[in-house]
Amino acid sequence: MLHIKCPHCGMRSQNEFSYGGDATVKRPELGKEVSDQDWDNFVYNRKSLRGKHWELWQHISGCRQWIKVERDTSTHEIFNTLKATEEIS
Amino acid sequence: MQKYSIFNLVKNAFSNHDNWDLAWKDPTPKKEYDVVIIGGGGHGLATAYYLAKEHNITNVAIIEKGWIGGGNVGRNTTIIRSNYMYDDNALFSEFGMDLWRKMSQDLNYNVMFSPRGIINLAHSDAQMNVYARRGNSMRLNGIDAVLLNREQVKEIIPMADFSDNVRFPIFGGLMQPSAGTARHDAVAWGYARQADSMGVDIIQNCEVIGFDVSGGKINGVRTSRGDIKAKKIGLCVAGSTNILAEKLNMTLPIETHLLQACVSEPVKPVLDRVVTFGAGHFYISQSDKGEMVMGGDLDGYNSYAQRGNLPTLQHVLTEGIAMMPFLSKLKMLRTWGGIMDMSMDGSPIIDKTHIEGLYLNCGWCYGGFKATPASGWTFAHTIAQDRVHELNSGYSLNRFSTGHLLDEKGLGTKTWIS
Ligand SMILES: Cc1cc2nc3c(=O)[nH]c(=O)nc-3n(C[C@H](O)[C@H](O)[C@H](O)COP(=O)(O)OP(=O)(O)OC[C@H]3O[C@@H](n4cnc5c(N)ncnc54)[C@H](O)[C@@H]3O)c2cc1C
Ligand SMILES: [Zn+2]
């Protein structure tokens, strides 16, 4: 069982959260010329690496906020959590 | 190679079975091969076998970082089926069903193929309509499909919950009678033994750690046991695809996730089909040893852990008990997990790449075991002829750019997010 520290609510069990995937993926900017490749990268292509991974989770059974979590994808160790609006440094 | 036969069994009994040949050798890697296959899972082994058998290419090495059969080919729940609606999936899988039916003879190895039939349960009128449509599509492609009503399902699986006060009553189901199961380890071992006998080098405990690419062409691999040259290289590493793709500067429409399965203590024969729950994600069959073999959803977040988390298991088994209440009385014997190459539309990729001589086989999601023979056969063709076969033409890498997705379940992208 993962324990995730919601920046709004504190430490909660994984059961309260749902997963939202890679947090580093950026939607192509509005109003700009966007190539097919850019859309592909946004919609489909993922690095999905072993090791440290910034990802989105939603505290669905809590404050319902989206948050960013830095987790190791092979040990499940969680290093850091941020509010959705906070930038990954 | 010694043939496995009743005659040889009796003959070897006289020498206490001490004189059987090794099933495959343990060669030291050569400096160069015509083809190198990375990954000694079911798909890599089958690819090497069909390269030798169908294309006469025998100067081939399979490079496996652990031991053959230690990956998902030895971790799956062995369901074999071709109950797909889309032509690309249906024709590919049904071609595979033919290979399954012949496999034990073909490999001279008993893979215990057991075409016991699979039933997908329906729990609403709408779901019955969807199954009728899928069944009709299957039949148009020459695949057997039978739509069962509630009474017919009850006759086949009376132990399911047919009482009046259930949350998801059973309305009926779609059955593919020719679907079934097989012994997964035997599939890996059978392909390995035959490939080895035709000259393929099976190199275990050898990890690919990099690639030699120049001028848009592949020249070889770097491994933990030295460099190996080859003009053609096939990537068959399932759940490790993203790791090797990164070394090739490729970003693929694949995420790596964990899938668990479990078996109960062995019990007397109770279930002689494969059954899936239609109101969630749970499936079950009974092994020859009597264990109830069960599985369902992914853990739900990117993972390379190769072992799972209890919340998912609890969720999956809750569905199982809703479907077949007697399961609550059984003790759990074993649980395990495998890391899965989840593609963005739920269908696999068997294709060439932008690097000349580099071929890609991945994206198997929940269903790569059943695909083992067809995947090996078509991948061998793609590598040997340097062009895709009609059967795997739908499994192209660029379908994500062109929009020709094969989202069989109509779930669109990120099918694992529920
Ligand atoms: C719990 C579970 C249940 C499943 N149930 C079913 C089912 O019922 N029906 C079905 O059809 N499918 C099922 N699957 C899916 C199926 O098992 C896989 O899709 C399929 O086995 C993948 O192909 P493979 O056999 O070649 O993979 P694997 O056996 O995983 O082979 C890949 C190999 O590559 C090796 N490798 C990785 N990286 C390197 C490297 N750098 N260098 C050298 N070697 C490397 C690995 O060690 C591994 O042996 C299930 C999977 C799991 C985990
Ligand atoms: Zn919260």
List the helices and strands and how they pair.
The complex is a heterodimer of chains A (89) and B (418).
Chain A: E1 3-6, E2 10-13, E3 18-22, H1 36-43, E4 52-58, E5 66-72, E6 78-83
Antiparallel strand pairs in A: 1-2, 3-4, 4-5, 5-6
Chain B: H1 6-13, E1 35-38, H2 42-55, E2 60-63, E3 79-80, H3 87-107, E4 118-122, H4 125-140, E5 146-149, H5 150-156, E6 172-176, E7 180-181, H6 184-197, E8 201-203, E9 208-214, E10 217-223, E11 226-229, E12 232-235, H7 241-247, E13 254-264, E14 274-277, E15 282-286, E16 292-302, H8 310-323, E17 332-343, E18 349-352, E19 358-362, H9 372-385, H10 399-402
Parallel strand pairs in B: 1-2, 1-12, 2-8, 4-14, 12-19
Antiparallel strand pairs in B: 3-7, 4-6, 5-6, 9-10, 10-11, 13-16, 13-17, 14-15, 15-16, 18-19
The structure holds flavin-adenine dinucleotide and zinc ion.
Q: Roughly what percent helix of chain B?
A: 25-40%
* Average predicted local confidence, pLDDT of chain B: 96
Major β-sheet strand ordering of chain A: 3-4-5-6
Number of strands of chain A: 6
C-alpha geometry of chain B: globular
